[in-house]
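Report of the visiting student (M.T.), summer placement. My assignment was to run the structure pipeline on a short list of targets and document each run. The first record concerns Replication initiation protein.
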Amino acid sequence: MDEIPRDQLTGALRRGAVKKHVAAIHVSGKLTLLQRKLSNVLLLNAYDTLVTQTRHRIDARTLCLMIGYNSNDMETLKQSLRGLAETVAEWDMLDEKGQQEWGVSSLLSYAKLKAGVCEYAYSPALAEKLHDPKVFALINLNIQRRFTSGHALALYENCYRFVRTGSTGWWPLDLFRRLMGLDGSSYYESFKHLNAKVIKPAVAEVNKTSNILIAPEVRRQGRVVTEIRFKVKENPQLAILDIDDGEGMRHGPVYARLREHGVSDRLARQWLSTHGETQVSAKLDYVEGRSNVRSKVGYLAAALDGGFGAEAEAEAAPSSARAQRLGRILEAVKARTPTQRDADRRLFQSQLSDPAARADFERHGWISPLNATRVAAFWEEMSPGLYEGLE
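After the run finished, the C-alpha cells were exported:
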C-alpha cells in the first residue's frame, strides 16, 4: 500500500467532520458499513463546492485510506461506488417558507475511476439539500472509523443530531427498520429478532465507540411493540473525539516505530486512535518477527484491519494441507461484507472461553495458531462443503 503524506490532503479533506443533511441521514439505512463510510468521505471532499461544481474528484488511494480500507483491491471500491449509485435518497421536509417538500434521488448520479482518480457527482436537487447549513448533523470522521457495524453507524447518525434535544422522538417500527436498512426483511418483522440482533448490539457499540450515549425506549399496543425512541446525551469520556487531532500520539514510542517502518503520519495516528497503543504494539512485534514478509507496512495494515487480509495470510501460511484449508477459509472471509466479517469475528470470539485462546485470536485473527482446529470447524459450519476436494 502506498503511503499518503498528510500534506497531500487539501481543502475540505483536512476537516475532521462532515456536514450531513438530516434528509440524507434518513435514507442511507441500506448502505453497508463500507458504503456508509465512503458516502461520508465523498461528501466531506465535495462539500465546499457542492453547489458550484457539478463534478468532484479525489485520489482513489486517499479515499481508501480515509475510510480505513487499506487495500489495493479497487474491485471492492467499485462495488461500493456502484451501491451508492443504486441507493435511492428520499427526503420529506419543510422549506424556508414552511411548505412541505418531498424529493427522491440516487445518492450518487454517477461515479468513475480513471488513472487512480475517483470522479463522482450528485444530482443538483440532492446537492442543494446536502449543502443546506441550516439543518445538518456533524458526522465526525475520527469517530466513524471506529465503527465495525453498519447498523451501529446508522443508529449513531440518526441519533447524533438529537443530542441537544435529548431524544429522537417516537419512531414507528416500520420507519426504524427503514433507517436501519431492514425494510423488506421478514425476519426482522419480529421485534424479538430486531431487538436481539440489531438494537442491543448497535446501542452497545454506539455507547462504547462514539461521543454520545443512547438508551432505547418502546411503546406497546397490548403486548406488541409499535414504536421506539432513543434517549440521547453526550458521552463525557469520549467527547474529546470531537476535537482530538491525534497530536499527542506523535510523542509515543509506538508512533515512532510505525514511522520507522515508513507508515505515514496520518495513517500512524489513525491506527493508534482506532486500535490503541497496546494492540498496535503487539501487531508490530509480530510483524517485525517475521522474515518472510515482503511488505511489513502492508502486512501490518492487514493485521490491524480485522485479522489479516487474504494476501498477507497466504504469504505467511505454510505449504501444507492446513494452508490449503486456510486458503478456503480466507476465500470465504473475503466473500463476506465488512459488516458480516465483523459479526463472524464476534461470534467466533464469543465461543472462546480460554483467555489464552481469545488473546491469540485477537492477535492473529483467522490464522491464530492456538485456534486452528476451532477456526476450521467454525467455517465448516458456516459454509458446509467448504473443504471438499482437499486431502
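The domain at 1-132 is CATH 1.10.10 (Arc Repressor Mutant, subunit A). The mean pLDDT is 76. I thank the supervising group for their guidance throughout the placement.
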